């Protein structure tokens, strides 16, 4: 029961991390919500920051799905 609760908690925390915002902060303080469509998602990251940035966002998002 404790193991399940811990997995749920970790999954909740991982799901609350926005990959585009995280990568933006690591890439020099870029806030993708303030450019392009204003959506903090992978498509806006690709359109406004390029493929390299979007691949980083994709890696973060895939990792979130695979975690527990």
Short note summarizing the structure:
The protein is mainly α and 68 residues long. It is 68% helix and 0% strand.
Task: Catalogue the unreliable spans.
Answer: none
Mean pLDDT: 91
Main beta-sheet strand count, sense and barrel state: none
Distance between the termini: 15 Å
Q: What is the helical fraction, as a range of percent?
A: 55-70%
Tally the helices. 4
* H/E element sequence: HHHH
Strands, total number: 0
In percent terms, what proportion of residues is strand?
under 5%
Question: What key attributes describe this structure?
Answer:
4 helices, 0% strand, 68 residues, elongated, mainly alpha, single chain
3D architecture notes:
The protein has one domain (12-66). It is 68% helix and 0% strand. It contains four helices and no strands. It has helices spanning 2-15, 19-26, 42-49, 51-66.
Furnish the topology, listing elements before pairings.
Blueprint: H1 2-15, H2 19-26, H3 42-49, H4 51-66
Helix pairs in contact: 2-4, 3-4
């Amino acid at each position: 029961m404790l193991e399940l609760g811990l997995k749920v908690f970790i999954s909740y925390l991982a799901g609350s991390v926005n990959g585009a915002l995280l990568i933006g902060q690591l890439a020099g303080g870029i806030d993708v919500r303030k450019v392009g469509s204003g959506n903090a998602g992978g498509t806006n990251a690709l359109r406004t920051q390029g493929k390299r940035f979007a691949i980083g966002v994709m890696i973060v998002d895939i990792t979130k799905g695979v975690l527990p």
